Amino acid sequence: MKRRFLSWFSILLIVMTVIGGLAYFSPKAKAGDTSSVSISLSGGPVKSKSYIGNDIEVKLKLTPAGSINVSRSPVSVVLVIDSSGSMSASSKMTAAKNAAKNLIDSFKNSAKSGDKLGIVDFDTFVNDNSNFYVKGFYLQNGSWQKGNSSTIYGPYSLPNTCTSSLLDLTNTSAINSAKNLIDNMNASGGTNMEAALNKAKNLLNASPSGNDKYVIFITDGMPTFYLNGTHNGYPLVDGPGLQPNNTTKSETLSAVQSLSQSGTKLFVVGVDTTGADVDKTFIELMASTANGKSYYISSTNALNSILQDIFKIINLAVTYDNLTVEYPIPSGLTVTSMPAGWKIENSKLIGTFNPVIFENGGGTPSAQEISFKITSNTEGIYNLGKATLTFRRYDTVNGESTGSLEVNLGQVEFVRQPGISATFQVIGSGNIFVPSTPYNAKLTISAYGKSLDVATIINNFTLSINNSYVTLQKVTTTNPSFNYAVDSGPTPTSLTIDYKVTFLREGTISFTPVLSYSINSTANSMNLTPINFFVIDATNMIKSFSITKKIISDNSSANLSLKIDDMGLFSYDSAAKIKIYVEMSPTDTLNTNVTFPLQLIVDNSTRISNGLRVLSKPVTFKLKPNLTATKINFNISRIDIISGGKTYTTAFEKKINDVVVKKVTLR
C-alpha cells in the first residue's frame, strides 16, 4: 500500500513538474494587453530619374499594424476644470464646458458596470461650498481683491459646482446632474491646482476596489495659490495670486505625487491661447509624475478632440503622437514643395504626421502618406539618405515611451534632357578673307543628355546666315542625326557638316549662324555664336614703294615712300590701322637712325594724295668702318590690319633692289 502510494505520488510530482514547466515557458498575456500594436515607416522616390530642373516626388508612409480587442476594468474618472478668471478670455470656459459634457457622453455611451465619474471645479479654492481662509486677498462682490499681504481674510465659500461623491456612469439622472454642474461653472478668481488635486484624490479614495483611477485636468495657466495649513480649522489659501512661484509649483507637484501614490493616472490639458500662460514643461512634469500624459494646445478648437482622445486611451486605446519627421536635405538637391505646415530649418525638412490612435475594438488605423518634391540643376546620382521619425507612445497599461524609426530613401539621378550644342567655323588662310573667294567652313554639332521614358531623335539640321553679303553652300550630302535610346545618350556624340562660305564685299562683316533642327519631329532652332570678319583684298593695297635716291652718300638721308590704297577700310572702321613691315638686307654693313624691320602705321589721319594714303620716312645711312660702299635691298614683308580689336595678318612682298650707299670722293 505504501509502495503504491509512493508510485502515485511520483507520477503526480512528474505531472506537476511538466505542467509547471509549461506554465513557465508559455507566454502569459496579461489582462488588457496593448503591446501588440506598432507603427512602421517606409518611403522613397516615386521615380528614380528625372531631367535637371524637373521635380522628383518622394513619399513617406506611416503604416499602423495590429489592433486592440481587450476587455478593460471598470474606471473611476474625475474631471477637473479650471474656472479661474482668465478662462473667460477667448471663449475658453465655453469650450471647456462643451468638451467636458461631450466627454461625459462618450463615457456614458461605453459605460460598463462599476464605472464612476466625479467633477471638480476650482479657481482660488475648490467650488464645493466648503469654508476656507485666504491670506492677502479678500472676496468683494464676487471678485478677489488684493489686501494686506499678512492679513488672513475669511472664512469664504464658493458656489457648489463639484460632485460630493463619485457618480454612477450608467445612471442617466446622475450624468445629467454632472452636466448641470458644468453648465453652472463661472470663470473668476485665481488658480489653486493643489486644492483641486486634493479634492480629486478625496473623491477617488471612495473608488470601488479594482477600478482603474484617472484624473483629467483642464487648465489655461499655472498655479498661483496653494494650501498653507489651516486657520480656525479650515484650509488656508496662500500665494502671489497673479503669477506662479516656486512654492505654488512645488506644492502642486506634491499633490500630484500623492495622487500618483494612490494609483491614479493624470492627464493634463494646457490651453494656451496667448502662448505665454501655460508652462509646457511644467504640465509635462505633472503628467509624467502621475504616469499620465500631457497635451499643450493653442486653440480652444482642439479641446474637444483632445478630450475624446483621452477617453479612447482610458478605454485602452494606444496613441502615437509627436510624430516628427526630420530629413537632412542632401547637398545639391532642393526641396521645391512640401506638405502644409512643414518647414525647412538648418538644411533639414521637418514636419509631422497626424497622431495615430489604436482604439479598443476599432481595428487598425489607416496608413498616412505624405510627399515632398526635390530637384537639382546639376547632373548626377544623389543618395537621398535617411528620414527619421521620432514619436511618443502612450497607453494606460504600459505607460509612456518614446522611440524612433528610420527609412533609407534610396537614390535618384538627374540628367540633362536630350539636346545639342553647335559651333560654326570658317577656315581661312590667315586672318584676312578675300571677297568673292569660297572658304571652307564646318558646322560641329555635339549632343548631350539622356533620354528618359521615350527614345529621342534629333535630325533635319539646316544652317542659315542672317547677312545678304555672305553666301553659304552645303558640301556634305548626307543628313546625319542623333539617336537616343531610352536611358542612354546618343551615338556618336558629335558630328560635322561641311560648307563653303563666300563674302561678297570688303569690310567688316558680322553675322549670326542659325541652326534649325527637329527633336522627335518638333521644330527647334538656336542662334550660334555671332561671327565677325574683316574682308579685304590686300594684294593690291601697296600701290608704290620707292626711295628718293638709288645712290646715297655715306651719312646722308633718303626718304622711303609708300602710297597705300586703304580700299575703304576707314569708312567701315574709322579707328582701324594698317601696319606695314619693311625689311632691309643686309643689315650688318651700315647703321641707320631707325630699327628694321621698320613698322609704318597708316590710320584715318594719314595724308591722302590723289585718293591714296601717303607715307614718307627719312632714313639716315652710315657705312660701318672699313667700308667704302655697300648695296642694300628693301622689302615689304607683312601687312597687319587692325580692326574691331582684332589683328588680321597677311604675308606680302614688294621690293626696292640695289640701293647703293658709298663714301663721297673729294676731287
Structural features, described:
This is von Willebrand factor type A. Residues 76-310 form the VWFA domain. InterPro entries: Ca_channel_alpha-2/delta, VWF_A, vWFA_dom_sf. There is one protein chain. The chain has 667 residues and is of the alpha+beta class. It has 4 domains: 38-69 and 322-414, Immunoglobulin-like (Sandwich), CATH 2.60.40; 75-315, 3-Layer(aba) Sandwich (Rossmann fold); 419-535, Gamma-adaptin ear (GAE) domain (Immunoglobulin-like, Sandwich), CATH 2.60.40; 538-662, Immunoglobulin-like. The protein has 8 helices and 45 strands. The strands form 11 sheets. The chain has a 6-stranded mixed beta sheet with strand order 10-5-4-11-14-15, sandwiched between helices. α2 packs antiparallel against α3 and α2 (92-109) runs parallel beside α7. It is elongated and about 155 Å long. The protein starts with a helix and ends in a 5-residue tail after the last strand. The model is unreliable at 1-31 (pLDDT under 50).
Write the layout of secondary structure elements.
Layout: H1 2-25, E1 38-45, E2 49-51, E3 56-65, E4 75-82, H2 92-109, E5 116-122, E6 132-135, E7 137-140, E8 143-146, E9 152-156, E10 167-168, H3 172-183, H4 193-204, E11 212-219, E12 226-231, E13 234-238, H5 246-261, E14 264-271, H6 280-289, E15 293-297, H7 303-314, E16 318-328, E17 334-337, E18 343-345, E19 348-352, E20 356-358, E21 368-375, E22 380-383, E23 386-395, E24 399-408, E25 411-415, E26 419-427, E27 439-448, E28 456-465, E29 470-474, E30 482-484, E31 494-503, E32 507-511, E33 513-519, E34 522-527, E35 531-535, E36 542-547, E37 551-553, E38 556-564, H8 569-572, E39 577-585, E40 590-592, E41 598-602, E42 608-609, E43 612-623, E44 629-643, E45 646-662
Parallel strand pairs: 2-25, 4-5, 4-11, 6-13, 11-14, 14-15, 37-45
Antiparallel strand pairs: 1-3, 3-21, 5-10, 6-9, 7-8, 12-13, 16-19, 16-20, 16-23, 17-21, 18-19, 22-25, 23-24, 26-27, 27-31, 28-30, 28-33, 29-31, 32-35, 33-34, 36-38, 38-43, 39-41, 39-44, 40-43, 42-43, 44-45
